[in-house]
């Protein structure tokens, strides 16, 4: 399905474009202010291009089979809602997104599957959390936190106060998945792991081995639950990915976090800016 002749709009975060993936027919990339935000394969929503998205999808696959209740903070091109609908038809999904024009643009250019139960609520992610229906409290199988303003995660969605709001949505077996971008020093992601660990007993960090060793800018997926995470099945799923990666949990995670402090509203800062060469979108 080709996108329209002018697949771009101006939003608060900058120019948003939907660019065809010339190497994968039927696939498109959402680029906002020069930063690739999402990749969608309209013919096969289970074909996931971005590393961190695949790792969140693995966490979804580890949850009990069947339809689920999912809340997504941050819309992007609705890649993960499409994945949930494709793998767990009948799921109920809520998406919280600040940029209403962006969602309208994505839904027009890259339509959701017919019959998908995906409701989008507009507004700041943290403010909108407090306005969700009371019935969602304690009922979500999955909460995905993937909130960015351009290339950075805003400070107010990184604190322990924020994570308490997120965790209040989880069912007893529910899982929260957080996409964290950081530089090679890993100070930000370690503090996020410490913060999530302060509100949930079971936490794991999943990333490629070079990122975990602090060798480059990249993404780490943090998984958290009140119940033990089914990590015994995760290595097999990660082994099928194009990039070598691992999950760090338990004592190994505690050592990895080290002396990183829990983030509060008073101490929260945005995630680090990536270097200019981290995200380069070729248009030749």
Put the structure in a nutshell.
The chain is an alpha/beta fold and 284 residues long. It has nine helices and twelve strands. The chain has a single domain, classed as 3-Layer(aba) Sandwich (Rossmann fold).
Q: What would you note in describing this structure?
A:
This protein is α/β, with parallel strands linked by helices and about 280 residues long. It has a single domain (about 45-255), classed as 3-Layer(aba) Sandwich (Rossmann fold). It has 9 helices and 12 strands. The strands form 2 sheets. An 8-stranded mixed β-sheet has the order 7-6-5-8-9-11-10-12, sandwiched between helices. Strands 1-2-3-4 form a 4-stranded antiparallel β-sheet, covered by helices on one side. Helix 1 (about 50-60) packs parallel to helix 2 (about 80-85). The longest helix is centred in the N-terminal third of the chain and has 12 residues, at about 50-60. Residues about 275-284 have low confidence and may be disordered.
Topology record:
Layout: E1 8-11, E2 14-20, E3 27-32, E4 35-41, H1 51-62, E5 69-73, H2 79-87, E6 92-97, H3 100-109, E7 118-122, H4 125-129, E8 140-145, H5 160-167, E9 170-182, H6 187-197, E10 202-208, H7 209-212, E11 218-225, H8 234-239, E12 245-249, H9 250-257
Parallel strand pairs: 5-6, 5-8, 6-7, 8-9
Antiparallel strand pairs: 1-2, 2-3, 3-4, 9-11, 10-11, 10-12
Helix pairs in contact: 1-2
- Cα shape: globular
Number of strands: 12
Question: How much β-strand is present in the residues?
Answer: 25-35%
Query: So what's the CATH class?
Result: Alpha Beta
CATH level 3 topology: Rossmann fold
Order of helices and strands: EEEEHEHEHEHEHEHEHEHEH
Mean pLDDT: 91
Low-confidence stretches: 277-284
Largest sheet: 8 strands, mixed
**What count of domains describes the coordinates?**
1
Q: How do the strands line up in the largest sheet?
A: 7-6-5-8-9-11-10-12
CATH superfamily: Vaccinia Virus protein VP39
| Protein structure class | alpha/beta
CATH architecture designation: 3-Layer(aba) Sandwich
The separation of the N and C termini measures: 22 Å
């Amino acid at each position: 399905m080709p996108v329209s002749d002018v697949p771009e709009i101006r939003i608060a975060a900058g120019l948003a474009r939907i660019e065809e993936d010339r190497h994968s027919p039927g696939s498109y990339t959402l680029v906002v202010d020069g930063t690739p935000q999402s990749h969608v394969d309209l013919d096969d929503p289970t074909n996931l291009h971005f590393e961190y998205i695949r790792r969140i999808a693995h966490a979804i696959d580890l949850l009990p089979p069947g339809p689920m209740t999912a809340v997504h903070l941050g819309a992007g091109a609705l890649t993960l809602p499409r994945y949930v609908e494709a793998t767990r038809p009948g799921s109920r999904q809520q998406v919280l997104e600040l940029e209403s024009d962006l969602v309208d643009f994505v839904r027009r250019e890259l339509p959701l599957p017919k019959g998908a139960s995906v409701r989008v609520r507009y507004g700041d992610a943290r403010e909108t959390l407090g306005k969700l229906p009371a019935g969602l409290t304690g009922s979500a199988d999955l909460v995905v936190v993937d909130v960015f303003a351009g290339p950075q995660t805003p400070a107010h969605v990184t604190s322990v106060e924020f994570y308490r709001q997120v965790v209040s949505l989880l069912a007893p077996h529910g899982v929260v998945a957080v996409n964290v971008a950081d530089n090679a020093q890993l100070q930000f992601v370690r503090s996020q792991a410490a913060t999530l660990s302060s509100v949930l007993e079971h936490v794991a960090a999943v990333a490629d081995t070079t990122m975990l060793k602090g060798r480059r800018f990249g993404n780490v997926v943090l998984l958290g639950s009140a119940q033990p995470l089914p990590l015994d099945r995760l290595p097999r799923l990660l082994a099928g990915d194009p990039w070598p990666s691992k999950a760090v949990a338990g004592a190994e995670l505690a050592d990895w976090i080290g002396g990183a402090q829990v983030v509060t509203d008073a101490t929260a800062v945005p995630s680090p800016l990536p270097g200019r060469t981290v995200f380069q979108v070729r248009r030749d």
